[in-house]
Design a protein that fits this description.
Chains A, B, C, D: InterPro entries: Metallo-depent_PP-like, YmdB-like. The structure is a homotetramer. Chain A has about 270 residues and is of the alpha/beta class. Helix content of chain A is about 20%, strand content about 25%. Bound molecules: fe (ii) ion (8 copies).
């Protein structure tokens, strides 16, 4: 199976770059499945139901979220009608929405998508490792599901690497989000799981993590609050990674960064 | 001028990979200057005076540090005899050592090296921006110094990007350290400064940021303290980036990741 | 000199309790000077210029602030016309307002009021110890000023105790604010400075630090954002402490908690 | 029932003051039950098995812990033989020891003791509210147990007040520990539960939260690590609070601070 994962889509610039390119890339790369983190898709803060639908109509098969999951209150009531939108699994019981979903592709193959949030330097949610264990206990990679993607929305590289090693061999891909900068450590771990510490953002990199740089820098220097941050409006880089998996085992065969447009060095998988 | 910057050297594995390769790479890439962050060179925690000397004898021209600067108490009293070893500039007045140094190359050209530490999710040091301003006010890029390297030792991508934009055009390179994972966002910013959010570590990546993964993961799962962490001993990736600068302006002409050995995809500059 | 210090005034309930009682207490206790922290006076978040004037007209001689200093943007432009309103001294140079003021009483005696913010688990401001040193270097307790009050707005007890010991003998009173709960450790330190780790809030204690408890607890349990917090509207306890100083030395002779109204055990100084 | 709760016992000074006074106080105050937090009893860091036994032999009926629970590795293996020593309940499943215990008094009455740790500005443990719910679901106040004490080991006043209100009416006492400073907000909440945000420490208050002040202040000023902190050795204040409960309902009838010796103003319950 050929999977594309895209990191945090930030604002209009990020959204438009994804929607303009995605159908072409699906074809060019013979993609079976696209997952995107969209916690910043609505003007940098949260995801509106309309934009969720636009992304799902525009070639994204499943959407993950993060600490900004609840910024758009109108999404909360609609999460139940959007089964392909998942929020971090380690929110307490009774939280709206789901922490994972299984997407059935037109060909009939099934892909498990899990979203989980780290706890270091982030809000104190429930144990993310236990949350992932509970989800994985209900599925068997290479059995009930043909592939499994785990989006670890976390601040520190250590916590993300912990997830990588712990679930190595049990999911197809462990990929980090949240820092909005792609890492260059994509690889297949010893147990067969593709791994990258952060997928990077889909947004304008001439910015501070996707937001207009002037205000963000003023805040760092002055400490006195400034205007509310606005997403930077320059040309976005669409950033993520592509994985090819073995449908029998669900493990990764190849992994390659995907970066198109904007300020970063492009990378297009050639498998 | 042709500069190589190497990220946090971690333990014996990282040190040996750097020392074994560096003389060859200096020649192969016609390097004029090598800067390395060595805050984890001594068994993962700090830098002993002996290892500082080994690195300086082995092809490193200047060493930067970070939050682990003081882990080896024997270094503190010797910092004054090691002028090419710099600790973060924003420690309070009276702190041993210096936050910057100027290295004069055999050819007579001068390179300013600055080390500074971020404050988000780190110890509350003095204002890092003011510390860098004070240092830069005494030097002129393309005038009194031919190149200038700023190592921003920080946790968050936002703070590092703030430094990149703020000093764009005033130094040759702004590069982050501390997260131990290389980022894939190397580029030359609008004002001519080369930038990469993190240089990555020189160490074994089959680990949790360079430390043995079993213990690190057990700590994440169990919370009860484990044995003291040990550096992972597998084959290291030497990770950093190379920059070519214009000696007249001191600004960057080319930038390319440098990665050799170990688990990560290799990258060798071809300019 | 007889000084009353009141902790963080929270919302209408806290404001009204202070304004209703203060003139009577000034007389009853023969107070020479009243200082109040008012960072939460305007509906729990910040201080409006109008409420600042109401407090200053109502018997408060000087107002201190904290991390909520900038919540009310209309205050920022008016800080220069409100010399008796001080914000934390360790904001960077160029920040609106002042970190200290000298109030001249009708009798001609002068009182130095300093506000400073801790850095542990708070925003990374400049070194608060250096900021206080710079202010104290311009004044002499028992010389140019007859008394000096230092409000340490900080999260941790350790940082506040550090301030107490460090400035023991150099100011009349070191008192903490920010936690909204009075501590029972009021005393005169070895060097003659009155000390209390936190003055407590002037607000409704049937709450979570002055805010309505239902919403605050729901946020702790659910993690999903709730409505914006509202100040609790029940009867406030006015909480602080009274200090009597020696006008010759400026040091403390007596210290006693002051608590009136609401849910806490009352305490009225009897000296 | 007449209960005494003592806050964090720090080092030799705190231990000796408790052991010297406790048998007298038990008699003088007709105490039925004494609970003490002892996470810092062994030289400021952790609790050795021997000191645990000394305290249990010396008049303490149950011991609670906190973030320092694991500082003394020799305690870990012996927790199972020390059923009256409880560690925070919200450590993950499989953690040595228990998060609560039921002490049966010589008269046959039973007291439930719970220890839980907050998550704000502390290690990311499991949900402390859920942990307490699970324990309380197995006991009925005024039914299976005659009294129940909940020690909330936490940094912030807000989290502690959240616990107070949430369990108001369901336990006899909610008391905070960890900040090492007693608060003056002891009271009986609307639902009948006695509450105090922090019990304070049993230790030398001429210190920084019980540790020698010189080193602690040097660390705040210099940032470069100093010697390992040592407990302050001056005369300790024994600090806590006394509660009288109704054996039928288990709720509180009276609450009063208990403070004896050392630098703080003494308080001796007179009921
Ligand atoms: Fe994001
Ligand atoms: Fe995020
Ligand atoms: Fe570091
Ligand atoms: Fe490091
Ligand atoms: Fe505050
Ligand atoms: Fe406040
Ligand atoms: Fe503690
Ligand atoms: Fe403690």
């Amino acid at each position: 199976m050929r999977l594309l994962f895209l990191g945090d889509i930030v604002g209009r610039s990020g959204r438009e770059a994804v929607l303009e390119g995605l159908k072409g890339w699906r074809e060019e790369l013979s993609l079976d499945m696209v997952v995107a983190n969209a916690e910043n898709a609505s003007h940098g803060f949260g995801l509106s139901p309309q934009i969720a639908r636009d992304l799902l109509d525009g070639g994204v098969d499943a959407i993950t979220l993060g600490n900004h999951a609840w910024d758009r209150k109108d999404l909360i009531g609609q999460l139940d009608q959007l089964p392909a939108v998942v929020r971090p699994a380690n929110y307490p019981e009774g939280t709206p929405g789901q922490g994972s979903c299984v997407v059935t592709l037109p060909c009939g193959r099934k892909v498990l998508v899990i979203n989980v949030m780290g706890r270091v330097f982030m809000d104190a949610l429930d144990d993310p490792f236990r949350a992932v264990e509970q989800i994985l206990s209900k599925h068997r990679l290479g059995g009930t599901v043909h592939a499994a993607v785990l989006d670890v929305h976390a601040e520190t590289t250590s916590e993300k690497m912990g997830f990588g090693h712990l679930y190595d061999g049990r999911v197809s891909l462990v990929v980090g989000t949240h820092t909005h900068v792609p890492t260059a450590d994509h690889r297949i771990l010893r147990g067969g799981t593709a791994y990258q510490t952060d997928a990077g953002m889909c947004g304008d990199y001439d910015s501070v993590i996707g937001m207009e740089k002037e205000n963000a820098i003023r805040k760092m220097l002055k400490k006195v609050p400034t205007e509310r941050f606005q997403p930077a409006g320059g040309k976005a880089t669409v950033s993520g990674l592509m994985v090819e998996t073995d449908d029998t085992t669900g493990l990764a065969i190849r992994v390659c960064p995907f970066r198109q447009g904007g300020d970063l060095l492009p990378s297009m998988p050639n498998f």
